[in-house]
TrEMBL record:
<keyword id="KW-0540">Nuclease</keyword>
<protein>
    <recommendedName>
        <fullName>Ribonuclease H</fullName>
        <ecNumber>3.1.26.4</ecNumber>
    </recommendedName>
</protein>
<dbReference type="InterPro" id="IPR012337">
    <property type="entry name" value="RNaseH-like_sf"/>
</dbReference>
<dbReference type="InterPro" id="IPR011320">
    <property type="entry name" value="RNase_H1_N"/>
</dbReference>
<dbReference type="GO" id="GO:0043137">
    <property type="term" value="P:DNA replication, removal of RNA primer"/>
</dbReference>
<dbReference type="InterPro" id="IPR037056">
    <property type="entry name" value="RNase_H1_N_sf"/>
</dbReference>
<feature type="domain" description="RNase H type-1">
    <location>
        <begin position="99"/>
        <end position="229"/>
    </location>
</feature>
<dbReference type="InterPro" id="IPR050092">
    <property type="entry name" value="RNase_H"/>
</dbReference>
<dbReference type="InterPro" id="IPR036397">
    <property type="entry name" value="RNaseH_sf"/>
</dbReference>
<keyword id="KW-0460">Magnesium</keyword>
<dbReference type="GO" id="GO:0003676">
    <property type="term" value="F:nucleic acid binding"/>
</dbReference>
<dbReference type="GO" id="GO:0004523">
    <property type="term" value="F:RNA-DNA hybrid ribonuclease activity"/>
</dbReference>
<dbReference type="GO" id="GO:0046872">
    <property type="term" value="F:metal ion binding"/>
</dbReference>
<dbReference type="Pfam" id="PF00075">
    <property type="entry name" value="RNase_H"/>
</dbReference>
<keyword id="KW-0255">Endonuclease</keyword>
<dbReference type="Pfam" id="PF01693">
    <property type="entry name" value="Cauli_VI"/>
</dbReference>
<keyword id="KW-0378">Hydrolase</keyword>
Length: 238
């Protein structure tokens, strides 16, 4: 299942900026001789192209804020539900120069959103940032609901995290973190923290599937991508 495409329109018939549907883009470029545009799989790439070709910075920042507001409006869950989307961005995975960031997005409570670039001592890879985002989701849930009465739903596109937290981690823990193939489990330090924060709370770990879920995940990934390339940390309640 594919994600959102991003169309950077530098010269358009009526307006310019970054659009997320071909329908919107076509109105600006089809039949317009001076049109200049390009599609990208990520918001960050579209943003870089747009700015490099003379686009205004406020145009692309407004899009991200607009999409975040739309997520709250289009949420399929009641406002009382604890729902978090955990995304990441990593460059240079497997190298000493790997840079990674994570984002934890709460569509029903945008003031809880957190984005952070990983420090070198946090051992950045392409998977560890998602574990840290999930840890933030659990910690925020425990702050807002210390009695742990509410169900927390954590969405991610990392299947190993879902599998680990629904079954495997408990098995590995009981076997001193040795897997069935005799090898040591990965990211044990973060799995221990996740299991500890999850205690006494019902948590639903889900892999993204629906259109709304994919839209939310796109936002989380975009925020993480911005953190890798930009300021490094963002919190809506600061």
């Amino acid at each position: 299942m594919g994600g959102t495409k991003y169309y950077a329109v530098v010269n358009g018939r009526f307006s310019t900026g970054i659009f997320t549907t071909w329908e919107e883009t076509a109105k600006q470029v089809i039949g317009f001789s001076g049109a200049k545009y390009k599609s990208f799989p990520t918001y960050q790439e579209a943003k870089e192209y747009y700015l490099a070709n003379g686009g205004a910075a406020e145009d692309v920042e407004d899009l991200l804020q607009k999409k975040m507001k739309e997520l709250t409006v289009n949420s399929e869950d009641p406002a009382s539900t604890l729902v978090a989307f955990c995304g990441c961005s990593a460059h240079g995975n497997g190298t000493l120069n790997c840079e990674a960031a994570w984002a934890c997005v709460f569509p029903n409570h945008s003031e809880w959103n957190v984005t952070k670039k990983m420090d070198d001592d946090e051992k950045p890879t392409n998977n560890r940032p998602v574990y840290l985002a999930a840890l933030e989701a659990l910690r925020r849930a425990n702050v807002e609901d210390p009695e742990r009465d509410q169900v927390l739903t954590v969405f991610t596109n990392l299947e190993i995290l879902v599998d680990s937290m629904t079954k495997l981690a408990k098995e590995w823990e009981e076997n001193n973190w040795v897997k069935s193939d005799g090898k040591l489990a990965k990211n044990v330090d973060l799995l221990k923290l996740l299991l500890d924060e999850q205690k006494n709370r019902q948590v639903q770990w889900k892999h993204v599937e629906s259109e709304w879920e994919l839209s939310c995940m796109d936002i989380a990934k975009e925020l993480a991508q911005n953190a890798v390339h930009g300021s490094g940390q963002f919190s809506s309640d600061e």
